[in-house]
UniProtKB/TrEMBL annotation, chain A:
The lineage of its organism: Eukaryota, Fungi, Dikarya, Ascomycota, Pezizomycotina. It comes from Clonostachys chloroleuca. The keyword Transferase applies. Belongs to the ubiquitin-conjugating enzyme family. The keyword ATP-binding applies. The active site is at C88. CDD domains: UBCc_UBE2A_2B (cd23790). This is Ubiquitin-conjugating enzyme E2 2. One of its GO terms (molecular function) is transferase activity. InterPro entries: Ub_conjugating_enzyme, UBC, UBQ-conjugating_AS, UBQ-conjugating_enzyme/RWD. SMART domains: UBCc (SM00212).
Automatic annotation (TrEMBL), chain B:
Keywords: Cell cycle, Cell division, Metal-binding, Mitosis, Nucleus, Ubl conjugation pathway, Zinc, Zinc-finger. CDD domains: RING-H2_APC11. Belongs to the RING-box family. It comes from the Eukaryota. This is Anaphase-promoting complex subunit 11. The lineage of its organism: Eukaryota, Fungi, Dikarya, Ascomycota, Pezizomycotina. Pathway: Protein modification; protein ubiquitination. Residues 35-78 form the RING-type domain.
Length: 172, 95
């Protein structure tokens, strides 16, 4: 059945194919455009470098007026990722905009900066960087207290624990 | 020589007075197409221009503004979305 959400997701898929963003990939599962599998490559110069982290994105019929549920399937060690894999990221909650698409969501998780609302032109609005997810965790209200404490107090151990998840991500 | 016109057919085209390449930021469809719920572009599926300068299919932006989470904000610039009324230059705010 063709609904507004499904048509929009087909456009998102077309954009992922014709104009693929660097460091992320995603496609709908066979026979259901409302569920997508995605992979984010850990960004260079971070402890997450070269990790291949898998995610699942679940869309509702209210998309793009409601954000997708995004969840890491790969094990993550990050102050803003819950043990369940769910992310604490404001653009997926109270800073959602219906102009975001799959590419914008994944890129902002990977680069860890908010997408421009107008994904075709960057001139529209100057966002203040509020959360650099993988790169610059927000330890204010951590989803993973242990990761948050290590990030603040023992960066060496934090990096070691993250590198373990990077190696594990290659086995998934 | 006298010519008698027996019959003629007129054809007209139209397009919205906005840049040709523009798409609606919400549904990502070109403005010369319709929002996802309409079949025919034009009067049935109009565009709405915000005072902030951002355009959307009227049906797309209405659906967003209806969401509590929108807080009445333009999806592009997050300013309160007020539409520019072209007839009397006054503006209204969508509630």
């Amino acid at each position: 059945m063709s609904t507004a959400a499904r048509r929009r997701l087909m456009r998102d898929f077309k954009r992922m194919q014709t104009d693929p963003p660097a460091g992320v990939s995603a496609s709908p599962v066979p026979d259901n455009v409302m569920t997508w599998n995605a992979v984010i490559i850990g960004p260079a110069d971070t402890p997450f470098e070269d990790g291949t982290f898998r995610l699942v994105m679940q869309f509702e019929e209210q998309y793009p007026n409601k954000p997708p549920q995004v969840k890491f399937i790969s094990q993550m060690f990050h102050p803003n990722v819950y043990a369940t894999g769910e992310l604490c990221l404001d653009i997926l909650q109270n800073r959602w905009s219906p102009t975001y698409d799959v590419a914008a969501v994944l890129t902002s998780i990977q680069r860890f900066e908010p997408p421009p609302a107008d994904t075709r032109s960057t001139a529209s609005f100057a966002y203040k960087p509020y959360l650099s997810l993988l790169n610059d965790p927000n330890t204010g209200s951590p989803a993973n207290v242990e990761a948050s404490n290590l990030y603040k107090d023992n960066r060496k151990e934090y990096t070691k624990r993250v590198r373990e998840t990077v190696e594990k991500s290659w086995e998934d | 020589m006298k010519v008698t016109i027996q019959k003629w057919n007129t054809v007209a085209t139209w397009r919205w007075d906005i840049p040709e390449e523009d798409v609606c930021g919400i549904c990502q469809v070109h403005f010369d197409g319709t929002c996802p719920t309409c079949k025919y572009p034009g009067d049935d599926c109009q565009l709405l221009s915000g005072k902030c300068g951002h355009n959307f299919h009227m049906h797309c932006i209405m659906e967003w503004i209806k969401q509590e989470s929108s807080r009445g904000q333009c999806p592009m610039c997050r300013q309160p979305f007020e539409w520019a009324d072209q007839n009397n230059e006054s503006a209204g705010q969508i509630e």
